[in-house]
Amino acid sequence: MNDRSPAPELIAPSTRGNESAILNAALDAFGEQGFNGASMRDIARGARTSLSNLYNYFPSKSELLAELLRRANDEQLARTRHAANAEATTAAERLRAAVKAYVGFVVDHQVAALVAISEIRYLAGKNREHVVEARDQTQAIFEEIVADGVSAGEFTTPYPGDAARNITAMCSAISTWYRPEGRLSKTQLAEEQSRYALALLEARP
Amino acid sequence: MNDRSPAPELIAPSTRGNESAILNAALDAFGEQGFNGASMRDIARGARTSLSNLYNYFPSKSELLAELLRRANDEQLARTRHAANAEATTAAERLRAAVKAYVGFVVDHQVAALVAISEIRYLAGKNREHVVEARDQTQAIFEEIVADGVSAGEFTTPYPGDAARNITAMCSAISTWYRPEGRLSKTQLAEEQSRYALALLEARP
DNA sequence: GGCGCAGGAGAACGATCGTTCATAACCAGA
DNA sequence: TCTGGTTATGAACGATCGTTCTCCTGCGCC
């Protein structure tokens, strides 16, 4: 596996017959047409099954979206957390690792990352809460690293929370423009983006 | 008028009876429910007129969205361009002015800024082209300032285009979280954001 | 062999969608 | 005062929506 090879699937083949096919079809449909623009019939067609069979797997269209967003945000949180917890001597190193992991998810699962930020507004109730919580926890990882770096004198940015929010905003936006055939490979993009993040924090050279 | 007072309306009262009321109702509806989630009946209700009367002003729902996005992007471009063209001795000063203008638009017309980035995907054909062109021109202003600053040795960032894209991404994302009652006033936020932009460019101190 | 259940299909339900139509009120200019 | 365009309305159209209902198939298990 190299820099340009496909990433592991976000939606792994499941024990239940068509579950992963339905989730992937829903991801494509929501990504192309938005939650309200995509119909259950579109999703059924994409999953090569019947409309009514969708309801043997998910009780409603909203729950289908919720399941997608749960998986996406949980995976992004897990990746970022793992990177942030790795051995590192400085806050700058931890930040670089966290940014690379975050960007790695966005590039590996671009459609999922895009749907996660643009369709979350159509979730409500408990489903929304869980997804928002995962997102906030991911955000908190960056805030904590930045705050640590400021305490240690590595970063001189005055408002760690604001700076961290700008970093995640920059990195999430990658899902809106990245093209695999572009100038930068996944690894190069992640590297470059971590440089912007450190620069934004006014890291001491 | 101070820092917390309301901004001039993006949709000014027009000569045609209900045009501005319809546009404002459409802006609210699209902002709250998205293009496909909002119905023409919702918009008519918001504008306190009848469903069929909407079609005396706009030939279709798509054209209504297009008109909104045209106005929003044109206004943001005009503000940014004006700021970038102002007298300034350094690229850093021009960048600060441009960021403040851009952020100023986002805060003054938060819903319009949010709709402009999240609903542009539902435009097609000529309508889409015009809006994309205005957006690209705004982007180009930042790219040019950054490139100038790099040439002059003010900024040391290696890829002006990428850096500029990160700057506009950060500033556009403000529309997704800003609350007027928050810690920062409009002017303070614009100031702070321009500092992040300069830091990101690795401006010489 | 018969039972039960998960997985699958087509048809249909009521609701809502964007749009159109016929028609009426209003109002400035001849 | 008549007139022609603008603004407005409620009713209706065909299409499509999410969801449900009924029924069928295949298959492991006592």
UniProtKB/TrEMBL annotation, chains A, B:
InterPro entries: Homeodomain-like_sf, HTH-type_TetR-like_transc_reg, HTH_TetR, KstR2_TetR_C, Tet_transcr_reg_TetR-rel_C_sf. Residues 39-58 bind DNA. SUPFAM superfamilies: Homeodomain-like, Tetracyclin repressor-like, C-terminal domain. Keywords: DNA-binding, Transcription, Transcription regulation. Residues 16-76 form the HTH tetR-type domain. GO terms for molecular function: DNA-binding transcription factor activity; transcription cis-regulatory region binding. This is TetR family transcriptional regulator. It comes from Halopolyspora algeriensis.
